[in-house]
């Protein structure tokens, strides 16, 4: 009887509600297909309705006749008001959220500001996931156990100086030459560092709630990432694609973190290739993680309705 109860208590994604941002292509779409095959109920957050519907069709096609539920919620992850509307929609339609996957990401070669006054890469890669997670956190806590998984990157190691709290809109950072190691790349690395620090601080704040937090490195993946940033970015990505893994391979650790019982109770870690990994020293700075949380609250609170 005891053995049977322990088996039943093991974590599995089957029958659980999984919310994924950035699921219309690449790693997110590959993960959505894999999680649907494991019996998850899916909600995808997308900016483009047509691409969202196409993604739903591809997820269902991959299910090969199995009954798959996929809800679509529309949001621009660069817009805080859009994220708030999507969160209201999610909370109004689903009484339970078991897994939240913060996967949407972007890199902007030239410095742009959002309508909220935030730099675009920072807004999409860090503030968007931060805000969406906070808005859905109470619902996640209502589950017996739940997980928040955030897509980071080995690219966080480019942010050798840590988070530049004195240059949060990256005005100085984007003044670096726009080469392969220019300001845009450093900014992207900074946002990926923020993903890891956010996860560590989130895990600390969630102790005792039953909600766990994880970040992971998908590796160098062949996707349509960075295709809207001009010919140099496209050429760079074309070269990198020769050495890249498939989206399915890049999604393996994400799917494992969402479905495996092996990581239960191991909140706050950074993972790569199905095992816990050691991020850069700047990603293990507890004081920076705490400061980032406080700054992020200010950057998102200003635009609360």
UniProtKB/TrEMBL annotation:
What is this organism's lineage?
A: Bacteria, Bacillati, Bacillota, Bacilli, Bacillales
From what organism does this protein derive? Cohnella nanjingensis
What UniProt keywords apply to this chain's record, in alphabetical order?
Oxidoreductase
GO molecular function annotation: oxidoreductase activity
Q: Which InterPro entries match?
A: NAD(P)-bd_dom_sf, SDR_fam
Annotated protein name in UniProt: SDR family NAD(P)-dependent oxidoreductase
Cell cycle recorded as keyword: no
Superkingdom of origin? Bacteria
Under the heading Pfam families, the entry gives:
adh_short
